[in-house]
Amino acid sequence: MSIELTKHKNSIALLTGQQSDHIDELTKGIGIHQQVKKPWLALQQAAKSAGFELEIASGFRSFDRQLLIWNKKFNRQLLVKDKNNQVIDLSKLNDKNKVEAILLYSALPGASRHHWGTDLDIYASNLLPQGKSLQLEPWEYQSTGYFAELTQWLTEHAEYFGFFRPYDIDRGGVAIEPWHFSYAPLALQYQQQLTVTLLESVLTKADICGRSAILKQLTNIYKRYIMNINKPQNLGKHIE
Ligand SMILES: [Zn+2]
After folding, report:
1. Distance 199 CA to ligand 1 centre (A)
2. Fewer CB within a 10 Å sphere, N or C end of the chain?
3. Ligand 1: distance of its center to the CA of 111 in Å?
4. Ligand 1 centroid from CA 102, angstroms
5. Phi, then psi, of 126 in degrees rounded to 5
6. 79 and 170: one domain?
7. Does residue 233 lie within any of the structural domains?
8. 206 found inside a domain
9. What is the three-class DSSP state of 123?
10. What is the pLDDT of residues 114-128, one digit of tens each?
11. Distance 207 CA to ligand 1 centre (A)
């Protein structure tokens, strides 16, 4: 499969989820980068042939949407869990530790890979047992979960279509997310262009909870949660 690379400087608004001109609505509420549509549909078709009804649970997410999630977690209106799926009592933490607890599963607004439209949380609707709702928790995708076979199939085939898992293992930053796939030809460029300075300029103006704690440790957050991810191994073969 040939993947076209278009290299150019992208706007701050695009990199930080404050622009959606490049996004197409695939199905109701699910947005995807225009250039990711074709590879996604190809992956979905291949999955179908293998017996998986591949669906997107979450695609493009705007800065404002991520900000709402962030602030709700910070204010304890949404639960924050640890790596063992246990709820963390944020009332006992200082702002610095609250920020770290949230970053395990939620990206900093402005730095979510979902802002780009290149990153998708996926599952197989036909493997989800009746009456069960999708949680996007690691156990669902691991060896005893409903999606174990899908996980295996994606490990073998996703890179052929340009997709890789940025959060494949625990690197001490973002927790493992077997459902999260990134379209490398575009996402690698966006990641490179998203700098600490750019993020700082956006967050300084944002109405974000924990702002001073975030800004104080932004360089560390950038290294530990934003750049500290998997790199695609075999994509080179398929990029022409
Ligand atoms: Zn995701």
Report:
1. 19
2. C
3. 12
4. 14
5. -80, -10
6. no
7. no
8. yes
9. strand
10. 999 999 999 999 999
11. 23
Separation of CA 122 and ligand 1 centre (Å): 8
The closest of 209, 210, 188 to 113, measured between CA atoms, is 188
The residue assigned the tokens 């970053």 is 103
How far does residue 181's CA lie from ligand 1's centre (Å)? 7
CA 114 to chain centre: 5
Helix, coil or strand: residue 221 = helix
In a domain, 137, yes or no: yes
**Alpha carbon of 59 to ligand 1 centroid (Å):** 8
Q: How many domains does the chain have?
A: 2
Asked whether residue 7 is assigned to any structural domain, the reply reads: no
Find the 167 Cα to ligand 1 centroid distance in Å. 9
User: Is the pLDDT reported for residue 239 higher than 50?
Assistant: no
Domain that holds residue 87: 69-111+195-228
